[in-house]
Amino acid sequence: MPAFAPADAPSLPLHVLSPDDLPDWLGGPGGAWAAWLTASGFEAGLGDVRLLPGPKGLAGAVIGTGTAKERARGRFGLAKAVAALRTGDWHLSGTLTEAAAKEAVLGWLLASYRFDAYRGTPAAEPPRLKLPEGLDGETLLAMAAGEYLTRDLINTPANDMGPEALQEAFFALADAYGASASAIVGDDLLAQNFPMIHAVGRASDRAPRLLEMRWGSEGPQLTLVGKGVCFDTGGLDLKPSAGMLLMKKDMGGAATVMGLALMIMRLALPLRLRVLVPAVENSVSGSAMRPRDILRSRKGLTVEVNNTDAEGRLILADALAYASEEPEATIISMATLTGAARVAVGPDLAPFFTDDAEMAAAIAAGAATGFDPVWRLPLWDAYEPMIEPGIADLDNAPSGGFAGAITAALFLRRFVDSPRYAHFDIYGHVPADLPARPKGGAGQGARALLYALPQMLDL
After folding, report:
1. Which of these, 101, 195, 391, 406, is most buried using a 10 Å CB contact count?
2. Buried b vs exposed e over 423-443: b needs ≥16 C-beta within 10 Å?
3. At 422, is the secondary structure helix, strand, or coil?
4. One of 130, 227, 313, 447 is an active-site residue; which one?
5. Beta strand pairing call for 429-430 and 440-441
6. Phi-psi region at 415: left, alpha or beta (left = phi > 0; alpha = psi -120 to 50)
7. Is 331 in contact with 226 (CB distance < 8 Å)?
8. pLDDT for residue 165
9. Is the CATH code 3.50.50.60 the one for domain 12-135?
10. Residue 95 burial (CB count, 10 A)
11. Would residue 428 be called left, alpha or beta, if left means φ above 0 and alpha means ψ between -120 and 50 degrees?
12. Strand locations in 234-361 (E)
């Protein structure tokens, strides 16, 4: 779990310098290293780090903040210090705004994440940072802990993270924070009217299930719904081999709402939390759902299955209908749902959809505060006919290829009765190492939502 260096521990200074600050620093406090830094080409570029030698070994380090243009192009540049410094306790030295200090500290915590469960030799312990005065360390630690959980769940391969293992992690999270948790498993899904969750997961020998968690007894109700497809072969509309390589991350929505739930419970926010995760494996067998099958949903709407690889919206539909049976709730769904979202905004942005302007404004503000970029896309009513096949109420995979992320969000909206609803179409993966975001599983939108909740729910 992420941690700060103790306030009273001996620590080395990490001098934070902008290109404008550098000449004065070299002519003053940093004069002893002026020749060394000049010779090494240090110009205080974003994340550029140099160790500073001293008479007894290491005297500290310097890191550049870069230009405003550099900072605008990349988050968490100062987190590069974690890899460069390797170990020991450090403190920030220099003039930073509160926002810049917060970004530096959060980035440091996120860059300290290690996933070495499958390595023979554990990775070295990362360096620790002291919490600068004036920052809310509890919130920073909660956000990092939630992100660690999300990354761990996504990074775990599908042979060890099937529906049952996801349930175990879900129950462990509930137990850690005094929440209640339950599961509806296998054919009990049919008995309790979750037919589409059952239809998607029935082909696997690892039974489908619906996981539910409740926490808190007072305040407004927030219901989080996360897609938990623990592996997606595509079903009978089988994905090509290359298309399956990342499909252990298809439970990234579940992992992200679990990470957000951890943040909420750890910070004891004054709300009533409900978390729903339909957990399945989309497999191939004689009992798999078929193209052109027509499924009846919990809400009663019928759905023609025109692509068995568009299964995430089917399981979410039953869960969202269930969530809407408590009409006072604000509902948020998160899912690794469409490739169209990645084509639209790439891997670094999480598009979201809502009809509620106040929710949208709160989420956008939260994204800026939490260094967690999102982008609002429209629930474009003119595209509603695209999800109506004629033979059934809804089509799970409209033909034509246009506006795939929007039509998926419109499909989900059909199952939500609450007027306060937002849907996030996340990627859940970092394709290549970035500052504070190692290659692999990643949460998106959770920090934006954490900071949006006070405004969204009037906490």
Report:
1. 406
2. bbbbbbbbeeebbbbbebbbb
3. strand
4. 313
5. antiparallel
6. alpha
7. no
8. 98
9. no
10. 11
11. left
12. 272-282, 294-296, 302-304, 330-335, 350-354
- Of 340, 329, 144, nearest in space to 225 by CA: 329
Please give the distance of CA 173 from its chain centroid, rounded to a whole number. Answer: 16
CA 159 from centroid of its chain's CA atoms: 22
DSSP state, 77? G
The predicted pLDDT at position 1 comes to 81
397's CB contacts (< 8 A; 6+ apart) are 305, 306, 307, 309, 310
Same topology between domain 12-135 and domain 140-457: no
Is residue 296 within 8 Å of residue 391, measured between CB atoms? no
Q: What local confidence, expressed as pLDDT, does residue 103 receive?
A: 97
Cα separation, 17 vs 96, whole angstroms:
9
Nearest 5 degrees, angle CA 204-CA 208-CA 211? 155
For residues 456 and 370, give the distance between their C-alpha atoms in angstroms, rounded to a whole number: 15
Calpha distance 395→397 (Å, rounded): 6
Which of these is catalytic: 71, 114, 214, 239?
239
Q: How many CB atoms lie within 10 A of CB 385?
A: 10
Q: How far apart are CA 356 and CA 337, in angstroms?
A: 21
Structural domain boundaries in the chain: 12-135, 140-457
Looking at residue 386, its amino acid is M
Tokens of 366: 């939260």
Cα atoms found within 13 Å of the Cα of residue 390, Cβ hemisphere only = 0
State the pLDDT at residue 122.
82
Distance (Å, rounded) from C-alpha 215 to C-alpha 261?
A: 9
In CATH, what number does 140-457 get? 3.40.630.10
The pLDDT of residue 124 is 84
Element of type H or E holding 43: none
Helices (H), 267-348: 312-323, 339-345
pLDDT at 86: 78
The pLDDT of residue 87: 84
State the amino acid at position 391 in one-letter form.
Answer: I
Q: Which helix (H) or strand (E) holds 129?
A: strand 128-129
Q: Walk along the chain (459 residues) in steps of 10 and give the mean pLDDT of each run.
A: 92 96 94 94 96 92 94 92 92 93 97 93 90 97 98 98 98 98 98 98 98 97 98 97 96 98 98 98 98 98 98 98 96 98 96 97 98 98 96 95 96 95 98 96 98 96
Is residue 209 annotated as a catalytic residue, yes or no? no
Torsion of the alpha carbons at 255, 257, 260 and 264, rounded to the nearest 10: -130
- Sign for the CA dihedral angle at 382, 456, 251, 171 comes to negative
pLDDT for position 401:
85
For residue 313, indicate whether it is catalytic: yes
User: What is the Cα–Cα distance from 200 to 216, expressed in whole angstroms?
Assistant: 32
CA distance 448 to 431: 21
